[in-house]
Amino acid sequence: MRSSLRHAGGSAIRRLQRVEMPGNNVKKRLASTIPKPSPDWKAERKTLKLVYSQVLQNVQVRVDLAFKAFFRRVKAGEQEVGCPRFKGFGRYDSMTYPQYGNGARLEGNRLILAKIGAVLVNLHRPVEGRIKTVTLRRSSTGKWFVAFAVEQERTIPADVPQAAVGVDVGLEKFATLSTGEVIDSPRFFRGDERDLKRAQRRLSDQPKGTPERARRRRIVARIHERIANRRKNFAHQESRKLVNSFGIIVFEDLRITRMLKNHYLAKSIADAAWNQLATYTHYKDFGERLD
User: For the chain, give me the number of helices (H) and strands (E)?
Assistant: First the structure.
């Protein structure tokens, strides 16, 4: 099914390139040039019949959004515009049912998906609100996750803290608050760096296309996933502490993208993930308090 989805997306990209890129003039595009899934596609590629129609339509929406972002960057005169490209095998790892109840529905701990069937799910918490869309995503280690986009009324807590705090991030210490409190840097990547280097060396020793290389690639992916999960958990916990303790939270304004160009500190800066803490704090604070 993933092969069919990337084929549909690639067909849309190729048609758009023929329509809109007759040279270097890419300043203007029309949304109407995005092709809808054609019956000819299913005649050309039989496996497309195995995919639910609205999932195929969502692939076209993704291509449309990718080209909108591309032309916006071109119009803004950015140096790196990043033209959308065809996704190779193994790189298309998600699919979306855009209308809940039409092709996808949740019954207890079973997710009923059109063209797939019933799938047992492990809900980490009850689904609250009205489900709008259902997205399935496959991680690099082969694990499948489902994300429900829901609509619900926002409830603003009455006991919002009045205290304000400033957050100064760093490498020696992850963050220092204006109250004097210090958050130590966990350095998750540095802790697993030796295991990662060993796994990557073993991966590079194997010829491309062999089953052993694929197995060792999964080992490398699991190490990266472990580091990312620990980092996310840390950012969630610290952002929750900040939101629960302070009403106004001000972060140091850093140009992290530029800082990553410093090759001496790039690895440590990326490992610190300052932006992740700021992002998590913002959405927790915005979702609970702000209008």
Answer: 8, 10
